[in-house]
């Protein structure tokens, strides 16, 4: 069933009117007719199953059939911060990271980042990534579309670190030294609702100076198992491990 | 440090001679000289740190400095079976799956697979995927290069199911129905050394008839969390969850 994200908050209504792009998609692309059902996802994270009751020149009218029952969002909000990697790896990180439950994505120029993007390029790139996140959120049945912020300096990034309850640093040297238990300890004790930032270096890794700065802001270096993961693979590991610990293990124990 | 996979088994020797492609890479590509160190990974999964003692016209001579200490391989052997997906998604599955620790990959034509590959095409594709697996194994510091087998019929695939100790079926309907604990139960109780097969459908999913066949062979349908994962993302989740449970949690508890 198709899934549409609306900008308004949910309030109980006899009828919902959908206009603009989702209208276009329902009527012109999917050629929906009265009786068809869709998911409507509201800005305040409520999602409902709704049935089309009528279609006008500019709006689709829908009535609520039921609330969507299942919780689709990770119990903690994990933001993935990536030192700008090469090529279109950020596209892959945002697409797969959205499917795997990330709350947001931050890009920043790390010391060893090869690419240099100016303001205009960053704005264009951010728009593209927001679209990728939106599509992946719809496809994976998310209740939230992750945010995307591409920063133009590492200083700005460091200033934002205080917004998080917990900072995890994926540090290759931790993996090489066989550090394996830090992430498990964090995920086993984290409180629901926590805002976690997970920082990943670009291909060349984070420099010891960068790791020191992030640690000074409260960051904890973590290994992600004994194998060396590429910069775009490491976030998938972290998000999957979080889901396994918080959504699968918690339920089965 | 560079990592080279050799076809011979490890036996203690005063000197190791490397010829052929790894010779070419050490001498011509990396321009190594006596005194440089590399990892040598032998066919029987022993890996050593070795130092170049001399270089001839056709061979690099090396002496063992020490055994590689850290265990890099998952304690269970997980084979990823993918119903042929579209485009080059299998490339991504093999590359990232190798980083994440898969023991092998099987491709098979599932009922809803759109692509139809004949014998010649399959042989070429398999060669390409073997090269991707090899490169990812070197890059991620694996001790084994995963196997790749592309099958030309689903019947052949089903005949191979008996080779495994345990079969996990990633089934979207399980996820939709909120099944969340099966995978956790399996990973918490699996014995070290087990051969696990994890089956993933193509974009269109597995049909109920296919799932029934796999279940008749002992397969257990599992959800992979509440979000709907794309066909190429689901194996990353499963392998990461296995590493988290068997390599991170096991150590920290």
TrEMBL record, chains A, B:
Protein's name in the database: Ribosomal RNA small subunit methyltransferase E
Query: Its Enzyme Commission number?
Result: 2.1.1.193
Main location class: cytoplasm
Give all residue intervals belonging to the Ribosomal RNA small subunit methyltransferase E PUA-like domain. 23-63
| Stated family | Belongs to the RNA methyltransferase RsmE family.
* Protein source organism: Candidatus Enterococcus willemsii
The enzyme class is transferase
- The reaction(s) this protein catalyses: uridine(1498) in 16S rRNA + S-adenosyl-L-methionine = N(3)-methyluridine(1498) in 16S rRNA + S-adenosyl-L-homocysteine + H(+)
């Amino acid at each position: 069933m198709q899934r549409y994200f609306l900008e308004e908050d949910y309030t109980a209504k006899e009828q919902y009117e959908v206009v603009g792009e989702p209208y276009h998609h329902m009527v012109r692309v999917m050629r929906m007719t009265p009786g068809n059902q869709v998911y409507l996802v509201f800005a305040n994270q409520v999602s409902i199953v709704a049935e089309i009751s009528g279609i006008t020149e500019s709006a689709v009218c829908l009535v609520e059939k039921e609330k969507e029952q299942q919780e689709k969002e990770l119990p903690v909000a994990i933001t993935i911060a990536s030192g700008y990697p090469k090529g279109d790896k950020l596209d892959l990180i945002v697409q797969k990271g959205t499917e795997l439950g990330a709350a947001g994505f931050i890009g920043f120029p790390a010391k060893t980042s090869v690419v240099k993007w100016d303001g205009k390029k960053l704005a264009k790139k951010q728009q593209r990534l927001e679209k990728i996140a939106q599509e992946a959120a719809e496809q994976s049945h998310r209740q939230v579309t992750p945010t995307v912020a591409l920063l133009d300096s590492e200083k700005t990034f460091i200033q934002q670190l205080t917004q998080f309850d917990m900072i995890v640093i994926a540090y290759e040297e931790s993996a090489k030294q066989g550090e394996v238990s830090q992430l498990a300890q964090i995920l086993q004790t984290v409180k629901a609702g926590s805002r976690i930032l997970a920082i990943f270096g670009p291909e060349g890794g984070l420099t010891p100076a960068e790791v020191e700065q992030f640690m000074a802001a409260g960051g904890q270096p973590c290994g992600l198992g004994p194998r060396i993961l590429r910069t775009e693979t490491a976030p998938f590991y972290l998000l999957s491990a979080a889901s396994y610990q918080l959504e699968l293990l918690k339920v089965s124990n």
